[in-house]
């Protein structure tokens, strides 16, 4: 219990500080580094204040992962929505998930898959985020089918195959297996085949609006 003159932050300030500290830790050291001790060090809040606002570090890790994953999704979705054609939107999606400047995000996903084996909060968050990304890809493929840009008989399956490739090449990259060019080619050529595009069509694409 705090006294009226306590300097403990008010609820909104404490929550915002906790969330920001958790994101900083996740991006610099991974989701597993989100501990009460580390949170106190980064946020400058007392362990008591943190525990009162966020009693479960597992739940905080899950929320932090969701915040980061959905933030990236929102940015990619906005740029893809402004694309002139479904083909250009697909190029943007592929480029976004292969770009080297998204390596921190990829590490967060790898953390989530690993931690999710023992942390139900993170497992649920990962499944929900994967479903949301899947919905974006399917919407692009459906639009391309309608416009004639693509020829996909099963858009949900094609989207799942795409993300399975992204996920596997993410892991490859973390252990230095294959070159960046080889990993990118594995993804782009496989997607091109699955949606009826000629080789090299998906090269390029940009998140620059």
What would your notes on this structure say?
Mean pLDDT is 89; it is low at 1-10. Helix 1 (11-29) packs across helix 4 and helix 7 (120-147) crosses helix 8 (155-174). The chain contains 9 helices and no strands. The chain is elongated, with a radius of gyration of 20 Å. It is 71% helix and 0% strand. The protein is mainly alpha-helical and 209 residues long. It starts with 10 loop residues before the first helix and ends in a 14-residue tail after the last helix.
Summarize the structure.
This protein is an all-alpha fold. The chain is built from 9 helices and no strands.
Characteristic terms for this protein:
elongated, single chain, 0% strand, 209 residues, mainly alpha, 9 helices
Distance between the termini: 50 Å
| Total number of beta strands | 0
SS-based structural class?
A: mainly alpha
What percent strand?
under 5%
Q: What coarse outline follows from CA principal-axis ratios?
A: elongated
Mean pLDDT: 89
Q: How many H/I helical runs?
A: 9
SSE pattern? HHHHHHHHH
Q: Helix fraction?
A: over 70%
Low-confidence stretches: 1-10
Report the biggest beta sheet as strand number plus sense, adding barrel if it closes. none
Gyration radius over CA: 20 Å
Oligomer: single chain
Task: Describe the secondary-structure layout.
Blueprint: H1 11-29, H2 36-43, H3 47-53, H4 57-81, H5 86-98, H6 103-115, H7 120-147, H8 155-174, H9 180-195
